[in-house]
């Protein structure tokens, strides 16, 4: 019997009883009204039982009702059964997930919205030193490293952060933050010690080679200068050759200096970021005004520069390294734009900190080159860069210095319209 058949049968049964009573005592409509009232009360009573059961989530073992209520409880039972099956399936899935993540070589920590530890795997015990008692604690109370604090506050999911393990300083862990639903977040830590060692060997090799090249280069440069001094100009070929030799040796000298600087920036020790107080307090607007208006570091064509500097905004950092960042970005804007085009330079407060920006109206850069510009020796036009005296290392240096100052380079550009190079220093760096 379907729901509607049951409903009609029930209704007719009540009306039939009313008809029987009216046969004996007359007044069919009064008896029918009474019967329907009883039916309505019965429905309300059944409904109240159902509401009570739903409120207490007591769906199992529903009363053995007749009529329409049989169907209501029948379908509720079905829904409950399906719900139990899904719960069981999800439970099994969750168990499988826990088992598989428990054996992962990477540390996995499940965090809630407040960054408190909800769950962690065996590798997290081993690599980070997490214990059962840490469940419910804030993750930073266990791994309190300034880089991780900064990483968790910015929540830039495209980035990762490498720090030493809190239980073993010889282990390097790369932390990656993943959001896998609205409430739960996963913090993965991969052991990158081997990779870090290979990186260290590569960096030391380049630093050593550059260092070894420095002495012979200084000697060659000295000889070339002596040759140029003693040149009487009788042979244009010789004069020309000496000049080219001088040019190439200074280019090589620039390269060696840049490679050494990069090696130094890459092996920045952890203590640097831990002791912000010990760093220089830099009045950036003053530095920029000096660089741009004195004509020392920057091209003498400083009339092209349009300065908009908010004074008194100081940041903590390494003055020499930051000067090289500002110089590099401004010199690039000059190199890759027409000699008479303007360059806007600004230093101002923004919502997330303080922003340095250089906007030129020159060549511009095609979109596909932008992500690669900070790679060593990557140049959009190698010939043009060489002709302008570039080493191809400038932006790689900029990237490293900025990373050491909790900032990063942001590049936006349109071919033929110009480029904008900017970086934002966080409030924690302001002083
Ligand atoms: P380089 O010494 O060649 O200038 P950089 O690392 O400073 O090396 O820059 C890398 C490349 O990025 C440059 O060769 C150039 O192609 C491109 N580039 C940098 N700044 C600009 C700019 N303002 N406009 C156009 N291209 C730029």
Structure description:
- With 431 residues, the chain is α+β, with helices and mostly antiparallel strands.
- The protein folds into four domains: 94 residues; 87 residues, PAS domain (Beta-Lactamase); 71 residues, Helix Hairpins; 155 residues, Heat Shock Protein 90 (2-Layer Sandwich).
- The strands form three sheets. Strands 2-1-5-4-3 form a five-stranded antiparallel sheet, with helices on both faces.
- A hairpin with a 7-residue loop joins β3 and β4.
- α7 packs antiparallel against α8, α8 runs parallel beside α13 and α11 packs antiparallel against α13.
- The longest helix has 38 residues.
- The chain is elongated, with a radius of gyration of 38 Å.
- The termini are far apart.
- The model has no long low-confidence stretch (mean pLDDT 87).
- The structure holds adenosine-5'-diphosphate (ADP).
């Amino acid at each position: 019997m379907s729901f509607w058949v049951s409903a009609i049968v029930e209704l007719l049964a009540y009306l039939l009883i009313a008809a029987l009573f009216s046969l004996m005592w007359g007044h069919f409509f009064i008896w029918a009204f009474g019967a329907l009232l009883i039916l309505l009360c019965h429905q309300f009573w059944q409904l109240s039982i159902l509401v009570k059961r739903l409120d207490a989530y007591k769906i199992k073992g529903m009363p053995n009702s007749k009529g329409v209520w049989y169907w209501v409880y029948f379908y509720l039972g079905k829904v409950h059964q399906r719900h139990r099956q899904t719960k069981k399936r999800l439970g099994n899935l969750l168990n499988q997930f826990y088992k598989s993540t428990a054996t992962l070589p990477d540390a996995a920590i499940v965090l809630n919205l407040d960054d408190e530890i909800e769950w962690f795997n065996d590798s997290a015990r081993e690599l980070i030193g997490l214990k059962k008692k840490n469940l419910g604690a804030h993750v930073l109370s266990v791994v309190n490293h300034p880089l991780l604090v900064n990483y968790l506050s910015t929540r830039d999911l495209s980035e990762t952060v490498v720090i030493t393990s809190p239980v073993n300083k010889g282990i390097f862990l790369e932390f990656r933050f993943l959001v896998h639903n609205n409430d739960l977040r996963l913090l993965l830590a991969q052991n990158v010690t081997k990779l870090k060692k290979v990186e260290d060997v590569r960096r030391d090799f380049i630093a050593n080679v550059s260092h070894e090249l420095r002495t012979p280069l200084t000697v060659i440069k000295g000889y070339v200068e002596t040759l140029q001094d003693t040149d009487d100009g009788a042979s244009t070929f010789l004069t020309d050759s000496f000049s080219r030799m001088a040019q190439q040796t200074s280019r090589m000298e620039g390269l060696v200096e840049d490679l050494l600087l990069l090696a130094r920036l890459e092996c920045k020790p952890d203590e640097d970021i831990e002791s912000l107080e010990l760093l220089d307090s830099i009045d950036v607007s003053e530095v920029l005004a000096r660089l741009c208006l004195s004509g020392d570091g920057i091209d003498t064509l400083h009339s092209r520069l349009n300065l908009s500097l908010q004074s008194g905004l100081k940041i903590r950092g390494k003055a020499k390294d930051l000067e090289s960042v500002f110089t590099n970005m401004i010199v690039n804007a000059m190199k890759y734009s027409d000699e008479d085009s303007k360059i806007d330079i600004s230093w101002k407060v923004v919502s997330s900190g303080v922003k340095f920006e250089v906007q030129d109206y020159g060549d511009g850069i095609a979109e596909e080159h932008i992500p690669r510009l900070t790679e060593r020796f990557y140049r959009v036009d190698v010939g043009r860069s060489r002709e302008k005296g570039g080493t191809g290392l400038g932006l790689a240096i900029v990237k490293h210095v900025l990373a050491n100052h909790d900032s990063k380079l942001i590049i936006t550009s349109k071919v033929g319209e110009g480029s904008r190079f900017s970086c934002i220093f966080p409030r924690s760096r302001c002083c």
